[in-house]
Amino acid sequence: MSTAEPAPAAPAAAESVVPGWAAASAQARLHVVTGKGGTGKTTVAAALALTLAAGNRRVLLIEVEERQGIARLFDLPPLPYAETRIAVAPDGGEVRALAVDVEAALLEYFQLFYNLGLAGRALKRMGAVEFATTLAPGLRDVLLTGKAKETVTRRAAGGEPIYDAVVMDGPPTGRIVTFLNVTVAMADLAQRGPIRSQAEGVATLLHSPSTAVHLVTHLEDMPVTETLEAIAELREVGLPVGSIIVNAVTDPLLPADALDAAAGGDLDAAAVADGLAAAGLTVDQAGLKTLVEQATDHAARVTREYELESELATTGLPMLNLPRLVDGVDLGGLYELSEMLTDQGVTLDRERP
Amino acid sequence: MTELSLRELVADQATTVVVTCGSGGVGKTTTAAAMAVAAADAGRKVAVLTIDPARRLAQSLGLGELDNTPRRVELDAPGELWAMMLDTRRTFDEMVLAHSSKERAEQIFANPFYRTIATSFSGTQEYMAMEKLGTLSATGDYELIVVDTPPSRSALDFLDAPQRLSSFLDGRMIRLLVAPGRGVMKLVGAGLTLFTKAIRTVIGGQMLTDATQFVRLFEDLFGGFRERAEATYQLLREPGTRFIVVATPEGESIREASYFADRLRAEHMPLAGLVMNRTHPLPASLSSLTVAAVDAGISAIAETDPLTAGVLAVHGKLLAINAEERRMLTRVTRAHAGLPIRQIPALPTDVHDVADLRAISL
């Protein structure tokens, strides 16, 4: 039987001492959340919005991929193109959501500058918007980021911002730089005109300290590689990167001092057999072998996650950790994740006027 | 629950096309590649058309270079495995060439608006995947073609996109701009003039000129394109075609798969079944270790033997995950009675080569 040693609370390989949430992120007003497909980008964006709403603040959660991910997550009917209250933070803050619809956003612009009247609806039916966004693919991104900017800068009668923060559930890592780099998209646009000046304003906001781009990843080869690539690209074009949010981290269940041996396939099966007997459990040889294999796979996975975590740490970026929620993410799970973000220092550092 | 055997499906001589669908990140490409290897192992000549394979898997299948035609993969198998990665732009070019004179095709390729459509239109990749399937199928060179669908926002995009692109190319908008003052325009009246003006202020006049020129060049091709898209769509309904919906046992992914299964049924497309990827089955040898037994065992030795307690906790976690997965499966089978399902256990590492593909439990 192995000697009883208390398992250290912190994983051995967690070498980053950088806090999970930079002061710059606490100051930012627009939080863009990206990540490889399947890493839980929408879930994390929603949890982040809930966290930032704590302390009686108002946060807007925006989605730009037109797939109603937020509505599905919160188990709501499809969101209209209007800011709708979807959740209340534990101490009175609120989260509103907006599913940005490119078509509606473009017609909104046209309506603002040209009085289209009933023609607007007819044009919509004829696929005019699809036409315009196909002619100029960058237009789509300008419209979506433009709407985000409008919500960030919108002010109440008294001059204070309507929203303390805006969280955007953004496009996946593969598209995020093209999406946010509005300066390039502007090449598609006419040299003058309302959308042109709008785009210039958007570019300024996105490249300012008011913006933070956060990257959600799993500790698996592909997502980590994509995350590192995206960070390099974001930095290259001068977009401010906030935190790396490591999602679905495996909870290390074996004692830290046994981890390396177990991962290397040297788990002491005889000691486990003794331990099981002491625990009053009867398991045959096949069962013991399976238990040891499971523990070996687990240890291998945990050590691989540590390695990948160290790779991410080389970026010098703050890292936040979220566990894999066994029973899936429902509304309760979201609050749970949000609380974990709060515990890791995620907050807004802004004076309420 | 009806059990789905992908191995039997691809070995069956009656199966000629298999299309894997599902939302992004669920393992479609890997599943498609594994099925192709299984078909070759069963002695068939198979081509796999992938869209965006992981780098290492692509290398192991010899997909390093994009030349848009299937390449033979060296494989110790009675059949033949051919693999290719879709080059959207090249497929589009080939389609244009097949429908027009060389001279006209050159003019079209030089048009900036064509370049946009061929690379950035949101449905082009889906359309071209289908076009390529049609072309490969028409050669008659392969007994089976396995198609992976593009990583769309939604699995449904794949069914809708070709239609969207073809109605766009044939669209009234373009006609209005080419020949203003006729037809629908009267209904829209002054609004249209304003709209054209608005478009010009937004995107500049040059693009509109390019688009107009493109439409003139393209006009004769529309008919051919339509027919071709229609023929491929029909291919999807033929008895030899089978759809496989891939999902992971997570709420979002399952909802998506569910919509897709309904949609296929509505379109009379042959759905072979659902692949529940990355599941966590319970080993038979540990059937005596119930949740209660594990919990009791852990509390008995947590203080004295953290190693064994940890080993038990690993199993406890598996029990919890497995219970949740079964709950999800029950939901799916309730909503889609009789839908055959294949559960593929999660692998401890990423799939990198043919040996890994063969290890997948199809």
Output the keywords.
heterodimer, A: 353 residues, Rossmann fold, 15 helices, disordered N terminus, B: 362 residues, alpha/beta, 2 domains, eight-stranded mixed β-sheet, elongated
Task: Please give a structural write-up.
- The complex is a heterodimer of chains A (353) and B (362).
- By secondary structure, chain A is of the alpha/beta class.
- Helix content of chain A is 48%, strand content 14%.
- Chain A has two domains: 23-250 and 324-342, Rossmann fold; 253-315, no CATH class.
- Chain A is built from 15 helices and eight strands.
- In chain A, a hairpin with a 5-residue loop joins strand 3 (84-88) and strand 4 (94-99).
- In chain A, helix 6 (128-135) packs across helix 7, helix 8 (173-180) runs parallel beside helix 11 and helix 12 packs across helix 14 (285-313).
- Chain A is elongated and about 80 Å long.
- In chain A, 48% of the residues are buried.
- Chain B has 362 residues and is α/β, with parallel strands linked by helices.
- Chain B has two domains: 6-170 and 198-280 and 328-359, 3-Layer(aba) Sandwich (Rossmann fold), CATH 3.40.50.300; 290-324.
- In chain B, helix 9 packs across helix 12 (205-218) and helix 11 packs across helix 12.
- Chain B is elongated and about 80 Å long.
- The chains are: A alpha/beta (353), B alpha/beta (362).
- At the A-B interface, helix 3, helix 5, helix 6, helix 13 and helix 14 of A face helix 6, helix 8, helix 9, helix 10 and helix 11 of B.
